[in-house]
Design goal:
Length: 122
C-alpha cells in the first residue's frame, strides 16, 4: 500500500490549507485513516482520525479549526485546516489501517505516507 500526501505549504497565521492523502495498491478495504504531525524535536502526535463509518476524533489543540473527512470510493482522506497558528507548523503524515490482498494477518496493518510540510508564519 502506498500513501501519497499533498497540499502542504507555507501560510500566514489565520490562513487555511487542505491536505489530501490517497492510498493505492492491493487494498481490500481501509478501516481508520488519520493525520499525524511531527514538529522538530518533538514526537509524532495524532491530529485527527476517522473511521470507515465516519466517526472522528481530534487532538484538543485542533478542535474547532481542523476537519477530517474521507472519500471511501477514492481511498482518500482530507484534512481541512483553518485558523492556522504558528504552533501548527510540522510535517504532516497520513496513516491508513488497511486490509490487503493476500495478507496473512487477521487484522488491518498500518501504512504511512511520506509526509508533507506545513509552515505557518506569524
Amino acid at each position: 500500500v502506498q500513501l501519497q500526501a499533498s497540499g502542504g505549504g507555507s501560510v500566514q497565521a489565520g490562513g487555511s490549507l487542505r491536505l489530501s492523502c490517497t492510498a493505492s495498491g492491493s487494498i481490500v478495504s481501509i478501516n481508520a485513516l488519520g493525520w499525524y504531525r511531527q514538529a522538530p524535536g518533538k514526537q509524532r502526535q495524532l491530529v485527527a482520525a476517522i473511521t470507515r463509518g465516519g466517526s472522528t476524533n481530534y487532538a484538543d489543540s485542533v478542535k474547532g479549526r481542523f476537519t477530517i473527512s474521507r472519500d471511501n470510493a477514492k481511498n482518500t482522506v482530507y484534512l481541512q485546516m483553518n485558523s492556522l497558528k504558528p504552533e501548527d507548523t510540522a510535517v504532516y503524515y497520513c496513516k491508513a489501517a488497511a486490509f490487503t490482498v493476500g495478507s496473512i494477518y487477521p487484522g488491518p496493518l498500518d501504512y504511512w505516507g511520506q509526509g508533507t510540510q506545513v509552515t505557518v508564519s506569524s
